Amino acid sequence: DRVLIGEVALEPPDYLKGAEKAAAYLGEAEDGLHAAFNFSFMYSKFSAEKFKGQVKTWEEALKGKGWPVYVLSNHDDRRHLSRYAKGKETIPRAKVLAAMLLTLKGTPFLYYGEEIGMKNLQLKRSELLDPLGKRYWPFHPGRDGERTPMQWNENLNAGFTTGKPWNKVHPDYASINVEAQNKEPDSILNFYRKLIWIRKKNIALRQGKYRENPDSPKGVFSFFRETNEETLLVVLNFTDKKRRLSFNRINMDKRKIILAEPKTEHNLFRGKWINIAPYGVLILKFIIHNYNFK
């Protein structure tokens, strides 16, 4: 089998309008791309409303045909962990984004290192290797910062090579690496693994329709993924405050918690509502289709 995926991008200031252009290159009768990158997520603010709007635009542009592709980082732009960094909240924010990427309808693309929280490296002009950065510094810092060697362990050159790497290794490799995070149950690496396993086990996350939840409070992005076999509700809190989600139009008697992150901070199912923890992630599976948005 073969697949043709296109890198379809717009020039500034039209970055956020990429969905319409990407959708125009898709085809279902061997007359276009099977899928196309929509880079809108890479230029969105860390906001439930912004990401929700980009998903809505993508879904409308596809008009029920084609297949979405979502991406948060790549080799040409700053890593999203650095773009959305906020002190101690950086990793919780990254987990919310990982959950969004791996539960939306479509094919998620992961850029190496995002699964362990790799950051961009700041370089001096004399250290640049990228021709783009050398030519346009300081207006363009180059792309070397997001192209540093993968951080496997705390050994020489982060375990990437015993020789001299082409690009510098990020100095935080001693603490941010695969080997260290393998040992931490709550690491972002193990969170990605958990999400991928949940995606593999639930057909609605792989093939299901996308339906926005109209009851989402401000700062929360929640949506349904549904097939004839199952329905899942994904709830993502993009804020550093607790948020209350109402279930007035949903029968919550027959449901199963698939994932609750952080594990101890959700006040689950107080009648017809739930408190979602700051930067909380909740995935529920309904035993039957038991909601009504009419």
CATH topology of the largest domain: TIM Barrel
Oligomer state of the chains in this structure = single chain
Order of helices and strands: EHEHEHHEHHHHEEEEEEEE
Q: Mean pLDDT, nearest integer?
A: 90
- Total individual domains: 2
Q: What's the number of helices?
A: 8
Net shape: globular
Beta strand %:
15-25%
Tell me the structural class: alpha+beta
> Rounded to an integer, what's the Rg over CA atoms?
20 Å
Gross CATH architecture of the largest domain: Alpha-Beta Barrel
Main β-sheet description = 5 strands, antiparallel
CATH homologous superfamily name of the largest domain? Glycosidases
Fraction in helix: 10-25%
Strand arrangement within the widest β-sheet reads 5-6-7-12-9
User: What is the count of β-strands?
Assistant: 12
Low-confidence stretches: none
- Cα(first) to Cα(last) distance is 42 Å
Q: At the first level of CATH, what is the class of the largest domain?
A: Alpha Beta
Overview of the molecule:
- With about 290 residues, the chain is an alpha+beta fold.
- It folds into two domains: about 5-200, Alpha-Beta Barrel (TIM Barrel), CATH 3.20.20.80; about 210-285, Golgi alpha-mannosidase II (Immunoglobulin-like, Sandwich), CATH 2.60.40.1180.
- The chain is about 25% helix and about 20% strand.
- The chain contains eight helices and twelve strands.
- It has helices spanning about 20-25, 50-60, 80-85, 90-105, 130-135, 180, 190-200, 205; strands at about 5, 35, 70, 105-110, 210, 220-225, 230-235, 245, 255-260, 265-270, 275, 280-285.
- Helix 1 packs parallel to helix 2 and helix 4 runs parallel beside helix 7.
- The longest helix has 15 residues, at about 50-60.
- The model has no long low-confidence stretch (mean pLDDT about 90).
